[in-house]
Amino acid sequence: MSNIRLLPGAVSEIIAASADTGVLTKADRYGLMAAILDECLEEEEEEALNRLLRRVVRGRIQVVDKISCDR
Predict the structure, then answer these.
(1) How far apart are CA 69 and CA 65, in angstroms?
(2) Which of 12, 38, 60, 62 is the most exposed place for a label (fewest CB within 10 A)?
């Protein structure tokens, strides 16, 4: 269906970096969207993504329109 292939560990890195910086960038969101649409998430990654989304809803992680941020 899709020709998008993420690097191994990319989803975990995005989740960890967002939790560390408190910021979810546009590039991070596109990477997560690609993983979800490709249905390549393992159960552990899916649970971690759900925790990340709860942090966004609670305001602990800020969603920004920057492509990337200084990490």
Answers:
(1) 10
(2) 60
